[in-house]
Specification:
With about 300 residues, the protein is of the alpha/beta class. The protein has 11 helices and 14 strands. A hairpin with a 6-residue loop joins β5 and β6. The relative contact order is 0.17.
């Protein structure tokens, strides 16, 4: 039987943010995943390969190249594909376009975290960043909070304005003021220095940190982490891998004891928001196990399950 190569046009009309978030929450209650990441670098270019094995769900390997210089040639900076294997036989079940998996996994991971941590009465979202992830994050959050008032801020005001106009959101020009007004703050940048400062935060907010994925990247400063109740989607793919946590842990600004739980703890109610006044912070690390949960849903939809 031919192995399908699944692209967005085959399944996307039948996908929803709530369904992918549901799959991630349900998958987080399943067997503990085995996870392995590999980063290869040549200058500013990166080959990132992430693998996961979840008993009863399958085996997944997603490999992507990240080439920032491609923009100068009119090319996307990221290319890749994901393989899905049957975990009992080892047979390849499908190849799935990595953009499709990453798009839905990334924003749905944040949505899952927010559903489990943000206040139910959240009314205003600030998105910091104006790229493709920021666009997906707006759609994902609105799927759960349809009346959400959305603000967009980015280092390039024209890009932020374009996204705000496209999504019926408002352009934020004063970042500290926008942070102070928001109930949820989602960061989707490529920053290596903090863009979100804890001094701007107030009780009751939820912080969704998405952008940092390497050891030298971070989006929030030490004060933000110190003031917040910190949660991660997975300790295995964040604590020792991503600068958002590695840098403040190494400096002593925070300790591992301040990381209060991961998605399995949140999904089963073992951890979470305890007070309306808590500032909750969720680090979206986007590990391979989440890619596999998303890919399995995509494959099921493709098969008509």
């Amino acid at each position: 039987m031919a192995i399908p190569y699944i692209t967005a046009d085959m399944v996307e009309a039948r996908l929803s943010w709530s369904a992918v978030a549901d799959a991630i929450i349900a998958g987080s209650k399943a067997a503990a995943p085995k996870i392995g990441d590999q980063f290869l670098r040549e200058g500013d270019n990166t080959l990132l390969s992430r693998a996961a094995w979840i008993a009863g769900m399958g085996i997944g390997v997603k490999s992507v190249t990240v080439m920032p210089g491609n923009a100068a040639n009119g090319l996307p900076s990221i290319h890749g594909a994901m393989l899905v294997f049957d975990d009992a036989t080892g047979q390849i079940e499908a190849v799935i376009d990595s953009d499709l998996v990453t798009k839905w996994k990334t924003a749905a991971d944040s949505l899952a975290g927010a559903r489990l941590l943000a206040r139910a009465d959240a009314a205003r979202l600030l998105v910091i960043g104006a790229g493709r992830v920021a666009e997906s994050v707006i759609d994902a959050y609105r799927s759960h909070w349809p009346e959400l008032d959305v603000m967009v801020w980015a280092r390039k005001p024209a890009q932020a304005e374009a996204l705000a106009n496209a999504k019926g959101a408002r352009l934020a020009t004063d970042l500290p003021r926008a942070v102070a007004r928001a109930d949820i703050i989602a960061t989707a940048t490529m920053a290596k220095e903090p863009v979100l400062w804890g001094e701007w935060l107030h009780p009751g907010q939820h912080i969704d940190l998405i952008g940092a994925f390497t050891a030298d990247m971070r989006e929030a400063n030490d004060t933000a982490l110190q003031r917040a109740k910190i949660f991660v989607d997975s300790r295995a793919t964040t604590v020792g891998h991503i600068g958002e946590l590695m840098i403040p842990l190494a400096s002593g600004a925070i300790t591992e004891a301040q990381i209060l739980g991961e998605l399995p703890d949140l999904a089963t109610g073992r951890a979470g928001r305890h007070s309306a006044q808590d500032i909750t912070l969720f680090k979206n690390g986007g590990g391979a196990h989440l890619d596999l949960m998303t890919a399995r849903l995509i494959l099921d939809i493709y098969r008509g399950a």
